[in-house]
Amino acid sequence: IQPDGDILIKPNRLPFAPQLTLKGLKIRGQAFDVRMDGGNYEVRSGDRTVRSPMGKAVVVSAKDGKLRTGE
Predict the structure, then answer these.
(1) Residues 27, 6: contact at Cβ < 8 Å?
(2) Beta strands in the chain (DSSP E)
(3) Is the model's pTM score more than 0.70?
(4) Which pLDDT band, with edges at 50, 70 and 90, does 70 fall under?
(5) Buried (b) or exposed (e) across 18-28, using 16+ Cβ within 10 A?
(6) DSSP 8-state symbol, 33
(7) Spacing of C-alpha 19 from chain mean position
């Protein structure tokens, strides 16, 4: 969680699990699904979905809850 309240999601690839899904991850009252598949991952929250390469963050805005790619 960033100082401004934004949630930063940036998973690392696990050598023993090239595919991994976390469902119902709850942070600050919001539920997320995170699915990692090889060199990419996907974050879902409600009807919003953002796909990003590993190493590039997905940010959940504290202001409006929107998902966007970050750093």
Answers:
(1) no
(2) 7-9, 19-27, 30-37, 40-45, 48-53, 58-60, 67-69
(3) yes
(4) confident
(5) eeeeeeeeeee
(6) E
(7) 15
